[in-house]
């Protein structure tokens, strides 16, 4: 359960905060993104964030393949990452941790 706790707490906290902010936002997500990219200082932060999101996407894809999952199994996480950046990898870590836990419990029961 330790491998799930931290990403689960981060996922719930950040997703909750994201929902709260989006409910109060005065502009659409696209308008907000365009305004961030209109200034060099905020554009640098956005570019940096999406470079990190790309690296996380590459890691999720290769990790899923190493675990014997199809490339399509990562698609929902990649889509979430493209829109909300942190939520996709955090959800992937939670689901991966739960799958690992289920496998280890199943293996222990077979012994």
What does this structure look like?
The chain is mostly helical and 111 residues long. The chain is built from 5 helices and no strands. The protein has one domain. The protein has helices at residues 2-24, 29-37, 40-66, 75-84, 87-110. Helix 1 (2-24) packs antiparallel against helix 5, helix 3 packs antiparallel against helix 4 (75-84) and helix 4 packs antiparallel against helix 5.
Short synopsis of the structure:
This protein starts with a helix and ends with a helix. The protein is an all-alpha fold and 111 residues long.
Fraction in beta strands: under 5%
| Overall pLDDT metric | 91
Regions with little confidence, pLDDT below 50 for 5+ residues = none
| Secondary structure category | mainly alpha
Shape: elongated
Tally of structural domains: 1
List its traits.
111 residues; mainly alpha; 84% helix; membrane
Topology diagram in text:
Layout (H helix, E strand, L loop, with lengths): L1 H23 L4 H9 L2 H27 L8 H10 L2 H24 L1
Helix pairs in contact: 1-5, 3-4, 4-5
């Amino acid at each position: 359960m330790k491998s799930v706790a931290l990403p689960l707490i981060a996922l719930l906290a950040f997703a909750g905060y994201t929902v709260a902010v989006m409910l109060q936002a005065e502009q659409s997500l696209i308008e907000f993104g365009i305004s961030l990219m209109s200034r060099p200082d905020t554009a640098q932060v956005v570019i940096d964030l999406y470079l990190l999101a790309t690296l996380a996407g590459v890691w999720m894809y290769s990790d899923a393949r190493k675990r014997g999952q199809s490339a399509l199994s990562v698609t929902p996480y990649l889509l979430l990452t493209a829109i909300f950046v942190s939520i996709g990898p955090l959800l992937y870590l939670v689901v991966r941790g739960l799958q690992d836990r289920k496998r280890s419990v199943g293996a222990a029961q077979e012994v």
